[in-house]
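Batch 3, record 17
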Amino acid sequence: MDECIFCKIIKGDLPAKVLYKDEQVTAFHDINPVAPTHILLIPNKHIASINEIAPEDEALFGYMMTSVKKIAELTGVEKSGYRLIANTGPDANQEVFHIHFHVIGGQRMRHPMG
Amino acid sequence: MDECIFCKIIKGDLPAKVLYKDEQVTAFHDINPVAPTHILLIPNKHIASINEIAPEDEALFGYMMTSVKKIAELTGVEKSGYRLIANTGPDANQEVFHIHFHVIGGQRMRHPMG
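Prediction for the assembled complex:
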């Protein structure tokens, strides 16, 4: 996916403030944070949205979930709490079509969920 | 977990409008929906929050993610879009300590994420 900005971040071709990276996932600071902690956690494999997750990707997404916990620990919000959000498609205003989990914390959530 | 209301729903000891159920996950309508589609997807195994997901639970949570897609299809929001939210701990106002994924759709999201 030559044009995908998140693939470029993974490859190091676009700058980002990377918090964590390994062979399966990359986590970096959102450039427009909505809270003191606002990390984007993405799979290194390009998958456009949750609608495109295949059964063979399940191991990767299981690892994504334990990685969410790791991100919470690295940013110090595991006890204070955090919200995980993944937006899919137009009604959720998905802007980048490479799956990303927002991990948001460091303050009490101010907005209802919907 | 005798006292957990979501475990009771899984066992059928508390009523819920169940959308989908199999050996690993259960999905039912939120009793206080914030949008036309508002489903709670839970693992049948009692796990309090994302902080308590162990490496041996990764397969289950990979399956949870493909189940999110299934819920979107069953409720007809896979094309229009949907937001997945999981709240952990006090700053995110987690109320039931059995992991639950909110799948919210059927209208344009009205609130910022944080």
